[in-house]
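Input record (one chain):
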Amino acid sequence: MKAEKKGVTAVSAIIVILVVAALILVPLLKHNSVSGYMKDELQNVDNVSLISRCSEVEGKKNSVAGVKESVRLGANAVIVDLCFRKDGTPVITESYSNADSAETVDELFKAMSEEKFKKIGIYLNIVQLSDISKLNTLAVNYNMLDRLFLIGIDSDRYDLISTDDTIVPFLLDYTFESDELSAAKDGSFKKPDILEKKGAAGLVLDRAQITPELVETLNDYGIIFVTDGIENTAEMCKTLLDGANNVIVTDIKKAKETLDEWTEKMQKRYKASVDKSIKELSKKADNNK
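The corresponding structure, as predicted from the sequence alone:
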């Protein structure tokens, strides 16, 4: 009998624990989901830039057709891998071994000069670095400098590039130290020295570092930054709510659909709010007659 009573008590205790856990976790999981985030208002939605890696087309990871496909799916900017042929010709490929058969940056820039692509940004991810003089010339000839960036420059490559080498703006992979992140919160933040030293246009940051305080500080200092390491649309939503606008997404189609749905929900909420205000004003006017 005592054993039976102990068993009932144990089961009851487990049920209580599960109920409490559910009460705590369910709201948390609900909020940390795409639908949960969509209940919040996204600021500056018109400034959001969805950056997609080049879509694979006919087995090719980098191609002009792949860039166009990413744009068709909703990308505002596209990342392609950059290599160079022996004669310095810049090409779009993930491997130097394919350089001779790969499409050229010239072909890419020519395609991006079409009217429907003139607002699309291009991020050239450096796989293999060489003399950039031909790339500089192409960027000028095709008037690409206002929507072109070099990326893929981690701390091991900082010494390989500077404004002495290229007129193309470049972004450095960067990780803020804990004291720098704390400084962003208490107002003692200092602009990273590496930006001025190398003449970099900005930074590429991992999503894990993004906080509203850091975003506000970077914006105050006029530091351009792109957010990478976003694995799914829920993480994208959280990153956008934290204030980051330029985000690299893994699934551009899903990301674009999510952003469009979110925008539509916000517009409906705004319209409902306006309609309610109009009704209340009309009601007050009627009462005052």
